[in-house]
Design brief:
The strands form 7 sheets. The chain has a 6-stranded mixed sheet with strand order 3-2-1-7-20-19, covered by helices on one side. It has a 5-stranded parallel sheet with strand order 9-16-10-11-12. Strands 23-24-27-26-25 form a 5-stranded antiparallel sheet. The protein is α/β, with parallel strands linked by helices.
Length: 380
């Protein structure tokens, strides 16, 4: 069915990917019936804020708030999609409702990967998780964070800022796999200066300790804390699509315009899309937005819509530092300083990859994202 004949579009997922898809459908000219299904009872919110400002939010405007939506969709919140019948063009919800569609956007995202089923293991994925964690931090518990990636380190930073004693358990040096040794070193050093303890190990597991959990390293050392947090990756929410033939390798593969097949788009954390490094998931906020804009336009305009031109962008705030990076991470070696220097303070840096592309990074340095992307040589 072409975009011109679509009368009903259903967007399954009310995160930033679903919200952006709905807004872009309207911008692209779709004026039919639009329905958004969200399994959380909350309106769409900023997920990156959950592990940053929200953990220490004061009395001002909520850090996770987004501007009011302008898409005019019917929003079904607090309900979950349980099945899809592509042949009949119908989505079934957990309350038994069947939603017919002409066009469909799959944007059900992902959930936190867990190390155990123990109630003492806490993760940070949704707004309710963040609010519960902020409540726990008010008592300044001792904290162990398992996971030395960006999310784990942001959680550790928030816990330190709340006055907690914090240990990060990392599979190898924290942040290196994502950011490379130079940028990782800057952030980890800032964490240590604020009192962070880092424990490197090849693997870790959780075991029950009373009503909570303890962390056991591969070497047999046990780490006890009043609060155990894990940040060890995510799992795409594709189970409800198991019988559709749309899932491969745990994700939903899409073409260059974000379409799984005519009339069905997949965007955000559950989608694997073509990149310069092959078909892959890129579970980042900026990636979800770019995917959703491309796919929504393709639903309306078909092949006349431009394909996705993915331009990697990453940002984090932790231990009093703000980092923005554009280009394919991680970079290797030492950077060339475009502004600033290695002695501390704001810095603008660049690395060259062997394939001719580059990474540009701004550390506590005010620069518009488009300009940062232009420094990689790949932005329009």
């Amino acid at each position: 069915m072409s975009g011109a004949t679509m009368k009903r579009v259903v967007v399954v997922g009310n995160g930033i990917a679903g919200l952006t898809a709905a807004d872009t459908l309207r911008e692209a000219g779709f004026d039919g019936e639009l329905t958004i299904v969200g399994d959380e009872p909350h309106p769409a919110y900023s997920r990156p804020a959950l592990s940053k400002a929200l953990l220490l939010d004061g009395d001002g405007p909520p850090a996770h708030g987004l501007p009011p939506a302008g898409h005019g969709a019917a929003e079904l919140l607090g309900v979950r999609a349980t099945a899809l019948d592509p042949g009949r063009r119908s989505v079934t919800l957990d309350d038994g409702t069947a939603l017919p569609y002409d066009g469909l956007v799959l944007a059900t995202g992902s959930r936190a990967r867990r190390l155990s089923a123990l109630p003492g293991e806490h993760t940070l994925r949704g707004l309710d998780d963040a609010l519960a964690l902020r409540g726990r931090l008010a008592g300044r518990p001792s904290v162990v964070v398992v996971g030395g990636g960006p999310l784990g380190m942001e959680m550790a930073s928030g816990c330190l800022a709340a006055g907690c004693r914090v240990t990060v358990v990392s599979q190898g040096p924290p942040l290196v796999a994502r950011l490379g040794s130079h940028l990782a070193g800057v952030l980890v050093r800032a964490g240590r200066e604020r009192g962070l303890t880092v424990v490197e190990t090849r693997s870790a597991r959780l075991e029950r300790r009373g009503e909570s959990a303890r962390v056991v390293l591969e070497e047999g050392t046990a780490l006890d804390a009043e609060l155990v947090l894990t940040a060890v990756g995510d799992v795409p929410n594709t189970e409800w699509l198991a019988d559709t033939g749309l899932v491969a390798g745990g994700a939903v593969p899409v073409g260059p315009r974000g379409l799984v097949r005519p009339g069905i788009a997949a965007v955000g954390d559950l989608a694997a899309f073509p990149t310069a490094r092959g078909l892959r998931r890129v579970p980042l906020w900026s990636s979800a937005i770019e995917q959703a804009k491309t796919a929504a336009r393709a639903l309306v305009h078909g092949d006349a819509a431009p394909p996705l031109r993915f331009q990697p962008y990453f940002w984090t705030e932790q231990f009093g530092l703000s980092l923005k990076a554009a280009g394919s991470l991680p970079p290797s070696g030492e950077p060339v300083y475009v502004d600033g220097g290695p002695g501390g303070g704001p810095a603008l840096m660049r690395w060259q990859h062997p394939d001719g592309t580059a990474v540009a990074a701004a550390l506590d340095y005010r620069i518009p994202v488009p300009r940062l992307r232009r420094m990689t040589g790949t932005a329009a």
